[in-house]
Design goal:
Length: 422
Amino acid sequence: MRTIDDFTRPLEYLSPLDDPLGKIVRDWAENYVIPHRRKFDEDWKEHALIEPAFKKLMGELGMQRVLFPEDLGGWGLGRSNYVGTASYRLFEEVARADSGMAVAFGVVYWPMVMIAMEPHVNRELCEEFAPIFCNTTEPRFAANAMTEPQGGADIENMEIVGGSTIQTTAVLDGDEWVINGHKLWPTNSGGVCDLFGVVCTTNPGSRDPNDFAFIFVPADTPGVTQGPPYQKAGMAADKNGDIWFENVRVPKSYRAHGPGLDLMYFKEVISFGNMGSISFVGGVMLNVFERLYEFVSSETYKGQPLKEHDAVAGVLADFVRDTEIVRMCGYQYARMLDRPDLYGPRWSDEMVAKGRAIKYWACDQGMADVGKAMNLMSSYGADRDWDIEKHWRDLKIVQLWMGGKQLCQAEVARWFFDLETV
Ligand SMILES: Cc1cc2nc3c(=O)[nH]c(=O)nc-3n(C[C@H](O)[C@H](O)[C@H](O)COP(=O)(O)OP(=O)(O)OC[C@H]3O[C@@H](n4cnc5c(N)ncnc54)[C@H](O)[C@@H]3O)c2cc1C
């Protein structure tokens, strides 16, 4: 019998850590997530079932520490040359069980890309924030607060909009930044966040890259208010909500790097967001393969298992083809992030565009394929007992975030066709 482990992995370039780490997360998913995930939708607010699974993965198994340097209690992944491929494997395994958990877990790393990655480690901030994640067995959450009420896509569309629509302001007052603004939707907001990375402007309306600031704000700083989580179509394990910053004061040193560099490395954050999103699509498709295998082998039509009919076999083949391609493209992009010596800096517009291209392709393909799996399963496709409709609802959300498909298309066309205004 074939399993998800028959899908191809690029063995020639995986780190020795890949399999042991993958196995740990696979065991965790089998024991702590898959048996309970059908009840996660109702647990969106309380996280009574979801929280223990996070505690095991992030606090007890220590996965929330991986990016920080070893001497600060981390695993040093930020200084390795396999941070992309190892993260891809981790995220894919978590997403196979629940892509909402995968994004919540992945975003614990996300703002840390600014400060814990070679060649731009900010040692002082790593020392400041590593204890939050490394000195505990409780799950701790970080959030990357970009999106604002007037539009998220414009904030990520730095090349054209140049940060001119960012309304969250950072004003230097002596040795402190004073931050005011309103963010919404960040993964791991909705009341659970411990540490925010906040996209700000030091000069509202400006398009000057030097005015883009990425500033860390511990969630318990006076003046920070987190609203309750939103109720969404899926991804109950990821809490999203409003955050208000009202005269919030943090030390001057909490700015990630300073004028120009904050924006430069922020593009690396976007590259990692694309890589993570692709891995979530891949993880979902693997689990849909497992459930579909079971269904088309046991359900019969004209006295034969469903899979033994030509038309059905064609759809199954297409599903496998696309799952293989998502896996290969995703790992290839992760590998490109691991080898800036070959592919250039992770923060280049080229890397952002190539990540966006694969991200929106994978989302479109995944949505179409999971839809076809539901067609084959007929009413059972919509039945919560089979988990497919859950993955379908979750995958739609992966398609919508990070500026949605349109921003992806704009950035891809812009880089490859030298567009100047789009
Ligand atoms: C589960 C989830 C997790 C999220 N996590 C985070 C997070 O961690 N951090 C965070 O900051 N935000 C997060 N978001 C918010 C998300 O990234 C934004 O919703 C998204 O970027 C779109 O922004 P918007 O909703 O304000 O839509 P808008 O930016 O207002 O866009 C509206 C529509 O206009 C289109 N559009 C925008 N610009 C262009 C253009 N140049 N050309 C053509 N069409 C365009 C968009 O594609 C979209 O269809 C999350 C959202 C969800 C649902």
